Amino acid sequence: MSLNRALAELFKVVREEAAGNPAFALKLEEALSVYRPSKALKQAAKARLRPKPAAPAPAEPVGQEEPAAPGINPISIYTNQGEAALRMALAAPSRAALAALVEEHNLDPAGQADGADRDGLVEQIVAQAKKRVERDSKLFDY
Question: Exposure check for the chain: N or C terminus, fewer CB within 10 A?
Answer without folding.
Answer: C
